[in-house]
């Protein structure tokens, strides 16, 4: 059997805005078979939003596929591309509560949980909070949001060694006297109300975030100012707060989900979430199936990674 590929493009058969309280409305959509096995897709970022290819990791004849834009991004409201929108009520516990509220709204008893990058973080947090609602898990590009994981991305000793020109552009957008804490320096600029300040900072932040997404470089996406600002604001908000995770992080809660069938997939050359994070999750959770893809980086659509992910959703479709 050859490598599995994305399922064909598909459009939602239902969608809406879910009132999540605090003035937040969460955009959701459902695709595939209305009577199929429920699965929820958790996008990365945080702040990345849902795009059409995310629907295609699942057999549309077998799955009822649920996707949603996390708070303040994508089509959810209010949108963080407006610098006046507060992110105070955008934390991991809020997102976990949104997922559970959406499950109840759709009258689903249990569902498969699929997440990549930040989506893997949120998937683990949700499953540990509501293990009785999770049938299986598929995790890609594991992101544990530990201090060492953040140091890899935002200090000179990590990914900067592999992307020196891109790191120099990211670093040099900040004056030398503020470079001892680039995350804080960018935060001051991204949250500045003046577009002449926050837009260049947001674009520099996003360019650094995206430069290492795949093993082979891809052209950068053409994104409008509001999308870029929302991504930068939300991503920075979570990184500065250590992901709003409980004391001990996600590995401390593995016993709550140890019984859940799971597949963990990570690219060997993932420069965003290097495979040591997936390996540490595997060591804590040896019951989960573990795969390193030898010819892949961070992207979920890279052929070897995509093959493993769709192999997992195909297999779980008949459980």
Q: Briefly, what CATH class of the largest domain? A: Alpha Beta
> How many strands, which pairing sense, and closed or not: the largest β-sheet?
8 strands, mixed
**What is the fold named in CATH at topology level of the largest domain?**
Rossmann fold
The overall strand count is: 8
Strand order of the largest sheet: 1-2-4-3-5-6-7-8
Quote the average pLDDT: 97
Radius of gyration: 19 Å
Number of domains: 2
Multimerization status: single chain
* Shape category: globular
End-to-end Cα distance, whole Å, is 21 Å
Please write the string of helix (H) and strand (E) elements: EEEEHEHEHHHHHEHEH
Report strand %.
Answer: 15-25%
Structural class designation: alpha/beta
Low-confidence segments, given as residue ranges, are none
Keywords:
319 residues, alpha/beta, 8-stranded mixed beta sheet, aminopeptidase activity
SSE blueprint:
Elements: E1 14-21, E2 24-32, E3 37-42, E4 63-68, H1 92-105, E5 111-116, H2 118-129, E6 134-140, H3 147-154, H4 164-172, H5 182-190, H6 195-210, H7 225-240, E7 262-267, H8 275-284, E8 289-293, H9 303-317
Parallel strand pairs: 3-4, 3-5, 5-6, 6-7, 7-8
Antiparallel strand pairs: 1-2, 2-4
Catalytic activity: Release of N-terminal proline from a peptide
GO biological process, one term: proteolysis
GO molecular function, one term: aminopeptidase activity
């Amino acid at each position: 059997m050859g490598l599995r590929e994305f399922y064909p493009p598909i459009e939602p058969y239902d969608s809406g805005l879910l009132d999540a309280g605090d003035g937040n409305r969460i955009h959701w959509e459902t695709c595939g078979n209305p009577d199929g096995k429920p699965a929820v897709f958790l996008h990365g970022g945080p702040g990345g939003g849902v795009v059409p290819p995310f629907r295609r990791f699942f057999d549309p004849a077998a799955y009822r596929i649920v996707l949603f834009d996390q708070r303040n991004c994508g089509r959810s409201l209010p949108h963080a591309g407006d610098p006046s929108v507060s992110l105070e009520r955008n934390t991991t516990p809020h997102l976990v509560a949104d997922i559970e509220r959406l499950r109840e709204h759709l009258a689903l008893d249990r569902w498969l949980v699929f997440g990549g990058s930040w989506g893997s973080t949120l998937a683990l947090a949700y499953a540990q909070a509501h293990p009785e609602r999770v049938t299986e898990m598929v995790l890609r590009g594991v992101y544990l949001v530990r201090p060492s994981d953040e140091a890899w991305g935002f200090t000179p000793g990590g990914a900067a060694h592999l992307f020196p020109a891109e790191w120099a552009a990211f670093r040099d957008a900040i004056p030398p006297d503020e470079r001892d804490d680039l995350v804080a320096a960018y935060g001051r600029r991204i949250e500045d109300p003046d577009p002449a300040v926050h837009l260049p900072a947001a674009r520099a932040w996003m360019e650094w975030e995206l430069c290492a997404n795949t093993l082979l470089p891809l052209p950068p996406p053409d994104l409008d100012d509001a999308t870029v600002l929302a991504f930068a604001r939300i991503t920075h908000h979570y990184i500065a707060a250590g992901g709003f995770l409980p004391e001990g992080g996600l590995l401390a809660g593995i016993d709550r989900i140890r019984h859940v069938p799971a597949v963990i997939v990570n690219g060997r050359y993932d420069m965003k979430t290097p495979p040591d994070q997936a390996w540490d999750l595997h060591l804590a959770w040896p019951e989960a199936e573990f795969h390193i893809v030898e010819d892949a980086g961070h992207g979920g659509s890279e052929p070897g990674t995509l093959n493993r992910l769709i192999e997992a959703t195909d297999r779980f479709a008949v459980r």
